[in-house]
Amino acid sequence: MRLLFSSLALFFLCSLQAQTRWNNPSGNSFPVLQNQGWSGEIGTTFERFPARAEKTVRKAVWDLSHHTAGLAIHFYTNAPEIIVRYKVKGSFAMNHMPATGVSGVDLYAVTPDGKLKFAWGSYRFGDTVQYKYQNLVRDPKQPKGFEYRLFLPLYNSVDWMQIGIPDSCHFEFIPVRKEKPVVVYGTSIAQGGCASRPAMGWTNILSRKLNYPVMNLAFSGNGPFEKAVVDLIREIDARVFIFDCLPNMGSLTDEEIYRRVMEGVQNIRNKYTAPIILTDHAGYTNDQTDTAKATAWKRMNLAQQKAYQQLLKNGIKNLYYLDHKTIAFPADGTVDATHPNDLGMQAYADAYEKLLRKLM
Amino acid sequence: MRLLFSSLALFFLCSLQAQTRWNNPSGNSFPVLQNQGWSGEIGTTFERFPARAEKTVRKAVWDLSHHTAGLAIHFYTNAPEIIVRYKVKGSFAMNHMPATGVSGVDLYAVTPDGKLKFAWGSYRFGDTVQYKYQNLVRDPKQPKGFEYRLFLPLYNSVDWMQIGIPDSCHFEFIPVRKEKPVVVYGTSIAQGGCASRPAMGWTNILSRKLNYPVMNLAFSGNGPFEKAVVDLIREIDARVFIFDCLPNMGSLTDEEIYRRVMEGVQNIRNKYTAPIILTDHAGYTNDQTDTAKATAWKRMNLAQQKAYQQLLKNGIKNLYYLDHKTIAFPADGTVDATHPNDLGMQAYADAYEKLLRKLM
């Protein structure tokens, strides 16, 4: 009875007639950045790699590791209004990717039956970026409020971030999920270019669909299956390892692609038995109008497929291949022949979801 | 034999070793802006309404009629390289829609078997916007070259435009298609917000899928089924009339929505027997998290559906209703709860295509 009373009090005391209380993910007593490897080491900063990685990966990779692609913050609140404010370090937008995708955040509420529902916030891009979510649905049966999942910018770094709610309302950060993550090593495509908003990057769609942590270790223009990155990934006790690196391997010879795939897979398999997925280049959507693109991606696929076959022959178990026919990338699925729009992102996520549901 | 020779000459004479010849759609001897109503009256300028409309429509509608949404230029060329350069009048991008969609162009090649293939051009946004298409596939069996379809910016006005090819190559504007167009009166959504590139606006997807002219008379924030616009549309002898206006009718009472739908449909039906489609509001994708959005769109749909039923009772023939269940708008199909991303645009286009194939 007392519990019921305090629960109801929690709900009814919460109103807009109050000052804003700012909650700081970075200042929290426990790590709250979901899908982040090395939480213990990184602490509560908005990074994808631990500081020591600066010494082992190329500068371009290190710089891109500051982008918050795939990171998310989960929390409970019963507030009717949530304000997210933060500072980003880079440009707000690219010509082929809007500010909402490059630098925006994306919020979903989790319903009591586990479904994720999109929430929209009015936004303002400036020295401080702000998203304001209003008129949020509340439910007296959920006195602490719904669980919310906030997806962070795909192509920008976050300097600081605060989540504001009316002071009279409940707010509670949710600790980092404990499941072994699905780890994705990839390129600009897996990093999230060019989704219209963070939740539409395919690793984030996949995370929502599976309701499971998916760690984004993808680096725009800089994901060519390098040993330095595989060595870091090897520190993650993953549920599944995904290598979607081919779109950045176009400048490599067949032999070098073969070598990197062989060594990368062996490197992981020497330590873990978890499933490993190698992914085809899904194709350039202008490969029937541009003579330079007609065969480029097919060559890379053949080189990787050769390595895959050899790895199977070598007795590597639990190794899977996601080929471009299975991805079935839509002809209109890119903004620029290379980078998926949201239609293409959904196709990638659907293909991965189907495969992962068999493996997990 | 002589014909064969000159055809082959046409093909082989064309090379990059030549000066660029600029072709000017505005200066052409016949109108070349596809999907443009009132071609004879507008001439060859990049407009959606004739000049006299300024006196009859609201200023906001008039201003938006300068946006080139839905306009396209079709041409033949056998050139290996095409440069499109032009000047736009407004901002390049919006925070939730990239420059490629707001101000970019989009090029497709038509293969001999009638399929449209995406081409990609490297772009540069500046005082002069430029798209450069290189390494284009050529086919000796198509001496004049492929037909190309160039889709113009969705959310900007075009001051002037030139299409450049090597001087030694063939170039030929294709006259405006003669089929009666599908005419769409709508809001920001139908205008193309927030597609990643022009061809992904749903009226343009539909035009490609049907290989048929679709005229875009949609005006961002300004498509509330107004008599002044219906009176102009009434001048177009359309194959099908589509009224997708509800997303801009939220501030109107049920009675006013009912009245405008009744009068608008009757206005068209008094003159034409062509199919008329009324379209539901497809829903806000945050309607389960935002209390203000939960019922707003359903109310509008009920008001329009009531008018639809009454029109049927009144004996109006060839009247169709595209309801939100049939549109089946995806939960992740918007960038901002209201405006479709490319995933949502595809859903709209698919729903319209299915219905139109029954009617045409």
TrEMBL record, chains A, B:
Listed Pfam families: GxDLY, Lipase_GDSL_3
Keywords for this protein: Signal
Leader peptide range in chain numbering: 1-18
GO molecular function ontology, one term from the record: hydrolase activity, acting on ester bonds
Domain named SGNH hydrolase-type esterase: residues: 179-357
Positions of the SGNH hydrolase-type esterase N-terminal domain: 21-168
Gene3D superfamilies: Galactose-binding domain-like (2.60.120.260), SGNH hydrolase (3.40.50.1110)
Name of the protein: Lysophospholipase L1
Listed InterPro entries: GxDLY, SGNH_hydro, SGNH_hydro_sf
